[in-house]
Every structure is written in structure tokens, then in C-alpha cells.
Write a structure and sequence with these properties.
The complex is a heterodimer. Chain A is mainly α. Chain A contains 9 helices and no strands. Chain A is globular and about 70 Å long. The chains are: A mainly alpha, B mainly alpha. Chain A: It is a multi-pass membrane protein.
Amino acid sequence: MTFSTKANALWEYANPKKFLATTERVLPFFWASAAACLAVGLIWGFFFTPDDYRQGATVKIIYLHVPAALLAINAWFMMLLTSLIWLIRRHHVSALAARAAAPVGVVMTLIALATGAIWGQPMWGTWWAWDPRLTSFLILFLFYLGYIALWEAIENPDTAADLTSVLCLVGSVFAILSRYAVNFWNQGLHQGASVMRIEAVTGGDTQEKVSNVFFYPLLVCIVGFVLLFVALVLYRTGTEIRARRIRALLARERVGA
Amino acid sequence: MIALLLRDLKLAFRAGGGFGLGLAFFLIVTVMVPFSVGPQSALLSTIAPGVLWLGALLACLLSLDRLLALDWEDGSLDLLATAPLPLEAVVTIKALAHWITTGLPLVLAAPVLGVLLNLPVAGFSWLVVSLLVGTPALSVIGTFGAALTVGLKRGGLLLSLLVLPLYVPTLIFGAEAARRGAVGMDTGTPMLMLAGITAATVALLPFASAAVLRVNLR
């Protein structure tokens, strides 16, 4: 029983009016809490944690790098989910949310790539290496670009929503495939050693590798980034809804005149 | 279905351009490589499998925007969509026609270009086999991209942007199989993965292509 009422409650937000009314009320809280979390997490992380004994102060870029990387991937998953909802239930808000999330996702990917390069330079002595993890992020970036470009290229909004949704589904499959292909490809190029070193430094086994001193501020930063992402997506979705309304009004006016 | 295939093949042969153009492009890209990296034969033979795969992929990409656009412009795509043949079959046939007119000639030309790039003797058979197995996937994925962008004015560049990331796994496994063959390593895993990608894309992607084509024809 509770499940069905809950589910219904969620689908109510498929109504743009209800969506706008609710997001307008909750958005200030999201902005405020995101700002608070980021301020606390970043200041704590940058100024009140010790330098790593091996990496020195460069370790602190982790507070930007890891949350951005996390969101870069999860933004795509969110787009996948909303695309599916659009294809199955035809809720316009869902398609617009996918559209709204894409630029945020691409910026997160860029932040992850850029901070990774800045971190990699002192650590590995190179800005870029064709490591599987780095390479798959670059491929993810390309997928985002294609997705956004397709949205921009198509005039009819429903056609655009349909086509980009299918692209998102197919792209997800190929993105995962690329991840495995890239893993295989790099192992094939040079064996082990460098990968082991990279594995120890980046993502993945963060929880085991990063000591608690770094982990708690990192957690706060991740929460802050997630809140920021939610706020941005809700805000941008609202903008998309309003933009579409304006277009509809203009079209009606033209027909009337 | 066979009538449609024959029609597409005839059009490709007689209209000119599309058929020979891919091959010529493949030749030119391959010839340009020594100019850009230098003529040392050791270097060329190392990069030959990868360069030939990339050249074949780009040549394949080049002919994609004509794949559905011509039929779209003259309205025959609408007729095909309303014909009793399911649209999934239509796009499969289109992909097959594209492969026969573009992929297959590339496969056949690759060994000749391999000579130009000083490909090791052991690599020739693996290059041909990997291209033979991999190019159908390129055609099918390309058909999906062409179906996505068919209604667009400036679809060509967007098509490349959409299709190239989708080509990544095929390229990785295909080039890896050719490379391993050239240096005498075991090619089992990449060949199997390449065959798997081809089989899966041929089986599944026509449904996605037909779905987006329906949206575009709406």
C-alpha cells in the first residue's frame, strides 16, 4: 500500500506545474545546503588536514577530483533513467531533466579530467597517460558531447527527446563496452606495473586507501557536490519547462494572428 | 528483401561516387601516414595494423551520410517504411548493402595497403580476418548513426561525432587482433570479443535504428 502511494507521489511531479511549484520551494534549501557542505568540506579539506607523507599538499585536489568524477558517471546514469522514463511513460519533465543534466555532467567530466591532469603531473610526472580509467573518462566526455549536440541539432522537441533517449540507451551499452575494451587494451599494451601504481592512487579503492583524516572532509565534499548537482538539474529543468512554455505561447500567438 | 538489397547495390554501383570514394579515401589516408610519421620501415610496420584499421574505419564513416539520406530526400524511405517489410529488416538490408559496397572492398584492399606500410607477413591474414569480422559491426553501428541524423540539415559532422565514440570498442578489439597477429601473439581473445561485438550489434542494433527511423519519419 505504502509503496503504491509513494510511487504515485513521485509520478505527480511529471506534471510540469506541480514540478515547478515544488522545486521552487525546495531549491533554496538545496542551494544553501550545497553551499554549506562545499564550504565546510573544501575549507576543512584544504586547510585543516595534514599533507600526505608521500604526496604532500597535492593530495588535496582529491576533494574536487573524486566528487566530480563520481557525479560525471552518475549524471549519465540519471540521464539513462530519465530517458527510460520518457520512452516508457512519456513524461515531458523526465526528458527535459535528462537534457538539463547533460551539460552539468559534461562539466563534471571536464573537472575530473582537468583536476586529474593537474594531480597527475606531480604524481606520475605526466599530465596524461592512456590509463584505462583516464581513457574511459575521455570516451564518456565524447559521449556527452554527442548527446548534447544531438539535442541542439533537432528542432522538434519531441523528436529530439525520442532520439536522444535512444542514443542515451545505446550509448550506455557502448560506454560500458568501451570501459571493458579499454581495460583490455591497456593491459595488452603494457603489463601491470604502472596500472598497479595508478590503482593505488586514484578512485576505486578510495575507502581502503584514504585514511580517515582525508576521508571525512571528502565525504562532506561528495555530499556537497551531489546537492549542487541536484540543485543545478532541478533549476535547469525548470528553465527548460519555462522555455518550452514560451515557445508554445509564441506559436499560439502566431496562429492567432 | 533481396529486391531491396539489389536495388541498393545497383544504385551504389551506378550512381558512382559512393562506391569508389571510400576505397580512394582509404588509399589516401594510408599514403599520408608515412608522410606524417616518416618513412622508417620499422616504425611503419609497428603501426601498420592500427593505421589500416583506423583508415578503414574512417573510410566507412565517410560513406555513412549517404546511407539513408538519398532515400530520405527522394521520399523512397517513406515508401519503404509503409511497405509490408518491417523497418528493422529494411535497416538491416541497408547496413548489409553498405557493408558490401564499402566494408568488403576495404577488406580486400587492406592487404595491398599493408604492403605500402611494411606490414609483417604474419599480419596479413589476421588483418584481413579481423577486418572481415569487424567491418559488419561498423556498418550496423553506422546505420544507427545515419538513422539518428537522417532528417537533419547538417547531419554529416554530427554523424561523425555520434558514431565515432560508438566505434571505440570495435576499433580497440579489431586493431588489437591485427596487431597481435602481426607480432605473432595469440589473437584469440580480441578476435572473440570482436566477433561478439559484431554478432550483438547485428542482432540488436537494427531495432534501435528502426525505432529512431520511425521517430524521424513521424
